Amino acid sequence: MQGDPASAIHAALSAFARAHELALLSLHLVCAACVIGAVVAFDLRVVGFARALPLRLLHGLLIPLALVMALPAAASGFLLFSLHADTLVASGAFVVKIVALFVAAVTAMMFYTGPYQQAATWDVGLSAPPFARLLALASIAALFSIAVCGVRVATALAVAAN
To answer: d(Cα 13, Cα 19) in Å, to the nearest integer?
Structure first.
């Protein structure tokens, strides 16, 4: 239906996004890199690196950054998806990326509702509980998968554009 307001909004968003797709993709990549970097740095502390750094202080520095940067990463990712849904859904890398995002989210929920509740007892100089370390390793693996699949998805989009 041509007079459909949703179609007009979609057309306007599509035209804007196509005209600025490189900027949109750049925004997505920079924000995703900030999220992944901040969360992996925190996860590495949970795994056992730099135990002299207070875990909760590191959390207070890194996780708010990750959360703030996740918003534009998600918004730009949604806009990029709206432009290339057919190509992306057909891409195995995109499907793996979405599954990895889900795994990362579930892992974070499990961490915050479980081991992090007792973080004061292992804040400085002590090893995190084994389950916390396992969740941190799972988070790192999921985030690595997101990054690798993101590169594959970008490559698939570049190939489809030509």
So the answer is: 10
CB 38 within 8 A of CB 62: yes
Count of beta carbons in the 10 Å neighbourhood of residue 134: 17
How far are the Cα atoms of 3, 17, 45, 110, 156 from residue 36, in angstroms, in the given order? 42, 24, 14, 18, 22
pLDDT digits (tens, 9 = 90+) for 92-151: 999 999 999 999 999 999 999 999 999 999 999 999 999 999 999 999 999 999 999 999
Two tokens at 95?
A: 């499907």
- Give the integer Cα–Cα distance in Å for 11 and 110: 40
| Residues 53, 59, 65: CA angle, nearest 5 degrees | 125
Model's pTM, two decimal places?
A: 0.84
| Spatial separation of the C-alpha atoms in residues 15 and 118, rounded to whole Å | 50
Query: What is the Cα–Cα distance from 112 to 3, expressed in whole angstroms?
Result: 47
Helix-then-strand count for the chain, H and E: 5, 0
